[in-house]
Each structure stands twice: as structure tokens, then as C-alpha cells.
From TrEMBL:
The EC number(s) this enzyme carries: 2.1.1.-
UniProt: S-adenosyl-L-methionine binding residues: 78, 83, 130-131, 143
Superkingdom as given in the UniProt entry: Bacteria
Function: Specifically methylates the N7 position of a guanine in 16S rRNA.
Cellular compartments annotated: Cytoplasm
Alphabetized InterPro entries for the sequence: rRNA_ssu_MeTfrase_G, SAM-dependent_MTases_sf
A Gene Ontology molecular function term of the record: methyltransferase activity
Protein name: Ribosomal RNA small subunit methyltransferase G
Pfam families referenced in this protein's UniProt entry, alphabetically: GidB
Record key words, sorted: Cytoplasm, Methyltransferase, rRNA processing, S-adenosyl-L-methionine, Transferase
GO BP annotation list: methylation
NCBIfam families to which the protein is assigned, alphabetical: rsmG_gidB
Amino acid sequence: MSEDQNDNVAGDSERIAREVFGARFELAEAYHDLLAGQGTEWGLIGPREVPRLWERHLLNSVAFADLVPEGADVVDVGSGAGLPGVPLAIQRPDLGVTLLEPLLRRYNFLTQAVDNLGISERVAVERGRAEDYDGKFDIVTCRAVAPLEKLLPWVLGLLGRRGEVLALKGSSAADEVAAVQGFLKKNKLAAEIVGVRAHPESEVTSVVRVRRA
Ligand SMILES: C[S@@+](CC[C@H](N)C(=O)[O-])C[C@H]1O[C@@H](n2cnc3c(N)ncnc32)[C@H](O)[C@@H]1O
């Protein structure tokens, strides 16, 4: 893509992001700028991602927001630089969000980001691996952490009685769901694939939603 085309894509995405984040756009923009600056300096975001941060990262992170119930307690497993947990927390001030990340540099970035954005009252940062952590969360979110076959056994201990997993998966969703049929049955769980998008002009992506059957 030429630099001009890159500028067009980034400009369009910013316009869409203004609509999606509404009154919280400035906060989303502050997070966008943190990713583009410190996030790339610390090696958490590739420099080539910068022109597509809005569409591929921030907007993609809130594509499934309608599936998250009002006031839910959410844990974002393997949050990395805060995706999808931080954009979700920015767009949805009704949510309590815990960002769970084992790697020190990413954990440090997250604690600073949450502080800088002034959202630490309802966004907690924890250092750890999902499988070593217990909780009673309403929603477990994850993006690009592991295939469902690995991920589901790790996160079962984080789910409250009515808890759900929302795993952003894209094109691998159907194959991954097929591979965990035995695990789902054994644990009395059901999975469905839901097509979601942040905005009518955004691409549809797939979320795997796992609930108690
Ligand atoms: C490819 S990154 C994705 C980060 C972010 N979710 C995103 O979409 O940009 C995968 C992240 O999962 C974390 N991770 C790997 N294994 C994990 C585990 N067992 N529990 C929690 N996080 C884990 C890694 O440290 C890394 O930050």
C-alpha cells in the first residue's frame, strides 16, 4: 500500500472510531497514541501496525462489545499491550476490567497506560498466567493468545457460574470449535460462532462464545 493509501485508510478509520467511541473518543485517541509511541518503542506493536491501529486493533477490540452484559466483570487474558481489554474498558465505562498478562514488560506497559489514561479505578492489571489464576468473572475475553484447545482448559477456573468466554478468532473459528467438541461435551459447555463488527463500515470478524450448556 502506498503512503497516500495508508493515510486514507487511517483517516477513514479515525472517522469511524469517532462514531464508535463517541464522547470517549479522546480517551481512545490517548490510548492509540500510547500504542503508536511507547508501544512501538517497547517493541509491543510493530511499526507497520501504526497506520492500522484504529481498524485492526482498537475497533476490532470493541467489535463484540454488544455481547458483554451491562456492568459485567471482565478479565482479558493475555492482554499484551491491552487488547481487547483497554478499548473495551474505554468504550464501556459500566464494566470492571482486569488485564491479565504474564510478561513483565507488557505488565509494566499496562500499569503505566491504565494510570496515564486515568482508568485505574475500574481497570486492574494483574501479572500472571490464566491457568494459575482463579476468579469468578462474568466474561473472559481473549485475542491472539492460543487456540481454543489450549485456551479453554486455562480459563475455566476464571469463570463464574454464569460466566462466558468471548474469544476473538477471525477465520480459524470453525476449525478451532471443531477441535474442542470433546472438551465442550465433557465440561457441559456449548460454543457458538458469532459474526461481529464495531461499525457498519467495519469488516465482520468471528467471535467464539462459550457458555455452560
Ligand atoms: C500474541 S499476544 C496477543 C496480545 C493481545 N491480546 C493482542 O491481541 O494484541 C499473546 C499474549 O498472550 C500472553 N500469554 C501467553 N500465554 C498465556 C497464558 N497462559 N496466560 C495468560 N496470558 C498468556 C502473552 O504473554 C502475550 O502477551
